[in-house]
Amino acid sequence: QLPPGLYKKVLVILHDSVLPYMNEPTLMMDFLTVAYGIGGAISLLALNGLFILMHQHNLEYPDFYKKLYSLLDPSIYHVKYRARFFHLTDLFLSSSHLPAYLVAAFIKRLARLALTAPPEALLMILPFICNLFRRHPACRVLLHRPAGPADMSEDPYVMEEEEPSESRALQSSLWEVQSLQNHYHPDVAKAAAVLSQTLSEMEDDISGLLELSASELFDREVKKKAVDVPLEFEQVRGLFGKKNDIFAEHFSLD
Questions:
Q1: Domain count, the chain
Q2: Residue 169 lies in a domain
Q3: Which of 38, 59, 135, 202 could form a disulfide with 53 if both were Cys (CB 3.0 to 4.6 A apart)?
Q4: What is the pLDDT of residues 105-121, one digit of tens each?
Q5: Domain boundaries, position 168
């Protein structure tokens, strides 16, 4: 058992400063699987090492996606390691052989959590969801269900279910995206509106959005050029702008 702080320090450097120099990286399997089961930030950091062992050393982890699904909680959009987590999650969900119910569960859970996410996270997660729909067309029923959210008495999706196959995500509808289309931030509303249109075949590049911060978003808004908006159709005349205004005879607006 290691202190949480030491766990994090080890896992941050393990995938690029330790595993490549080991004669038998598979010796770290037990350590990483235990770390992955701890939860929170430690589980997020263990993903890097697990990915290398699964991709290069044939590690089999039967409940890997179930555990990855359980890591999706409201804090995932706020944690320090958000960029690393979503980069790896994008890799794990890139295979076209994944079952539709599994990908649909991830889409639905990400969309539900997005309702309370900050704008900088939403500008990353909405293109992320678009990419998942492009890779897995069978999940588009969430967007184009004939009986959409307006005709559903309640959402059949079970948010509290830990098993993705039992979450009933494929029977649901992505009403969360319609809510985000009315978001107070115009860029978020615009990104959400893309899902109501026909998606292009080309995937969005989200690499530049993974580390988007609130300060960057603020700076981007400040640097936008202001557009002059006309507020009056008729030019103001006199003091109160009325026709036959007696004040117009004695006062003028320069």
A1: 1
A2: yes
A3: 59
A4: 999 999 999 999 999 99
A5: 98-145+155-222
